[in-house]
Amino acid sequence: MPYTTKQQQAILACLERKQGQPLSAADLAAELRQDGSPVGLATIYRQLERLESTGCIHKINTEQGSYFQYCTHAEDGAGCLLLKCEGCGRIVHLDCSYLQPLYEHLEQEHHFTVDRRRTLFTGLCADCRAREERHASE
Amino acid sequence: MPYTTKQQQAILACLERKQGQPLSAADLAAELRQDGSPVGLATIYRQLERLESTGCIHKINTEQGSYFQYCTHAEDGAGCLLLKCEGCGRIVHLDCSYLQPLYEHLEQEHHFTVDRRRTLFTGLCADCRAREERHASE
DNA sequence: TTGAGAAATGAGAATCATTTTCACATTATA
DNA sequence: TATAATGTGAAAATGATTCTCATTTCTCAA
Questions:
Q1: How far is the CA of A36 from the C1' of D3 (A)?
Q2: Nearest nucleotide (CA of A41 to C1')
Q3: Alpha helices for B54-119 (secondary structure H)
Q4: Are A20 and A58 spatial neighbours (Cβ–Cβ below 8 Å)?
Q5: How is domain A1-72 classified at the CATH fold level?
Q6: N or C: which end of chain B has fewer CB within 10 A?
Q7: Which protein residues, judged by their CB atom, are less than 7 Å from any atom of strand D?
């Protein structure tokens, strides 16, 4: 029977504290070290995998590796999405009701159940778009 | 001044031939080897990067690495999306008009321009969902 | 044509996130 | 307490991607 270790608690607590902010395994390691409760990377990956499989957190894949986020509610993510800017690398988290009809359509017409907590759009934020345009006009 | 090499042509031709089917760099290498025109992996990555920056192809990030797809038209992707099944790993490509209002909303309200060719939803296809349910009920 | 210089190529080394291994520590339960 | 199960972390292994550099291929002006 599994039991709870202080590493597990520290990892989950850290993710909760940073809610809405995607963290990489390395980010987590750094955070935990700062908090005075360092945890080995192997353990961090193991725990992240476990937390993900139980639905406590969700994983987002990007070019530079994976990021993890705490899920507040069971139904969290129903209309939530992430935007990743290709310019500055930032990941922004927001809610949007426009996703609902799309998900329903995919479910009914294409028999595909979207994992709503892992939706990630790639593109450009306003700042980076402006920078690109300036660049192009030179 | 850049010139065209047979490796470049072979890579692009292969991507065109496999349209709608995302290929990894390794897939491409295997294809090209079979075609009798083997190309080094370093070159494949270099060319994929170039083709992506010119907009000829687009890149999709997954847990297992990146995949690349040929873009038919400049405006391709306006309503196209990719579904990646977490169960079987398949990537399905389809068109869907439900994306349009969402993109417009993100553009106007959140000042975020989505790169429409890189939209990827993660979830479960019908087959894998059925399998999961069978599993859970045991 | 020729040859200097610009680009491209590919084998292998380097990198970096992630996973695995394994000896050891911790906890549960008999 | 003894013992089996599980968790931990350092170090090694893995695998995708990138870098290095010697070599090849092209371009273009003389």
A1: 34
A2: D9
A3: 99-110
A4: no
A5: Arc Repressor Mutant, subunit A (1.10.10)
A6: N
A7: A 1-3, 5, 7-8, 38-43, 46-47; B 1, 3, 5-6, 24-26, 41-42, 45, 49, 64-66
* Best CA proximity match to A107, nearest among B116, B121, B114: B121
Query: Which residue is listed with tokens 């196209």?
Result: B80
Which nucleotide's C1' atom has the smallest distance to the CA of B38?
Answer: C10
Interface contact B66, partner A, CB < 8 A: yes
Q: Where exactly are the structural domains of chain A?
A: 1-72, 73-138
Q: What are the DSSP calls for A73-107, one per residue?
A: STTTTSSEEEEEETTT--EEEEE-TTHHHHHHHHH
Identify the architecture of domain B73-138 in CATH. 2-Layer Sandwich (3.30)
Tens-of-pLDDT digits for all 138 residues of chain B? 578 899 999 999 999 999 878 899 999 999 999 999 999 999 999 999 999 988 888 898 888 899 998 876 545 556 778 898 888 878 888 888 888 889 999 999 999 999 888 888 999 999 888 887 776 665
